[in-house]
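#struct-help
A.M.: can someone run this one for me? Single chain, 510 residues.
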Amino acid sequence: MIDPHAPAPHSGVPRSRGEPGRAPLPVKPGTGRFLVLAGVFVCAACGLVYELELVALASYLMGDSVTQASVVLSVMVFAMGLGSLAAKRLRCRAAAGFGMLESLLALVGGCSAMALYAVFAWTGGWGGVWGDGPRYLLVGFSLAIGVLIGAEVPLLMVLIQRIRRQDPGGAVADLFAADYVGALVGGLAFPFVLLPLLGQLTGALLTGVVNAVAGGALVLGLFRRDLSRRGRWLLLVANVTVLAVLAAAWVLVDDFERAARHAMFGAQVRVAVQSEVQEVVLAGGERGRPLDLYLDGRLRVRGDDAARYRADLVDPALRGGPRARVLVIGGGDGIAAREVLRFGGVRRVDVVDTDPEVVRLARRDPGLSALNGRALSDPRVRVVTGDVFGLLRGGGSLGGPYDVVICDLPDPALTSSTKLYSQEFYGLVARVLGERGRVVVHGGSVSGRFWTVAETVRSAGFRVVSYRGRGGGAFVLGGWRAPSPGPVRPIRPDRAYAPSTLVHPRYGSG
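D.P.: on it. Structure tokens below:
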């Protein structure tokens, strides 16, 4: 009778505990198997955190989250295949190879965020095919981390067979189960624990520490008898060195972030906080210096032209009809609300923003509250924070119907803003708009994307007028009736941007 758990002849599966040629393990086989699977779980969680860290930081630094995620994921998956092939040469020394592999992965993955941030802050663009230095580094780290992660499973397969021989299918199933559950935990820990509590750089460093400790403890604790005395000392020194580097980086990370922000945003950075939604940075705003507000590294408010931009956005909409009730979407900085309150007849202004931290700074920061004229403290203004889509769907949670809806939103070119320029979004706006209501939207510069925005507003049932502001921006004013925006400069699409070419199956245009 054939034992189903016996390895096939010449299968290359190492002998288990107690067999000639193998030093016995310091624990029982069941305990050893559990420890290996626990190591797989921890290493998988760390690997996914490195991956998400690169995606998040690249999106923050370079924009276009879809492109950055595609680059990181595709390169990393390709590199994992290369790593699996390369690990075949290490199977005869699986314990030593896995230990050194985890030390290197902890160092590379833990320091990747700081290195990418430093290159972006202090070198800017390098030119070339990718356009700048951070993209080269992003691809390099994705390759390196992918190769190291891909090399883990073949070595772990040898180690788990070292403990107790079993059929290869069962061993693979056990390893992948622990690997996938670990990836789930790492994927949830990054956005809900590491990022909000520690930030991107410190979170990556902590992950590297956990990775180094888990890998070193597994090999030096469970498989130390498979290593020579010299091999044990080399692995111990490697792990201690990696932990020392990560600890030193952890101590210096605050000074590093401060210096990097000054390099990116100027020497007048006063406030830098990581909210649950985004990083908020305020620069200037004191001693006559204009205030700049950055959200996730992108300039959102420039003090010396903020009033002009908001006037271009607000004034034409409020001059065209009734304005007793006004809804400002995305105006947590309070500047659009200040412009609205300049008009007579305004009885109520509801401001909806996703980030409570921006609202808090708009009320309490001396520079930003001076710029918005302390509009958010006006008794006619009510501020609501939360998901814009959910609040619009609720309808009653706001104060509609509104005479004017002002969409003071990020640039439509940003992938994260796409849903706020969709047909579904304008359909929800239509539900809270009164009979003679108007809606105004910032559409960026005059280009194909701008006419996409105009056509999407029209597809929600509005009659629209496109106009150019005094500051050079382009805006779309829509209403149930033909809107009368007053003395503005209407603009019409060139033939290259004919509306018929801009229809999108989901968003109404695109």
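A.M.: thanks! The mean pLDDT is 84.
D.P.: also worth noting: Residues 324 and 346 are 4 Å apart (CA to CA).
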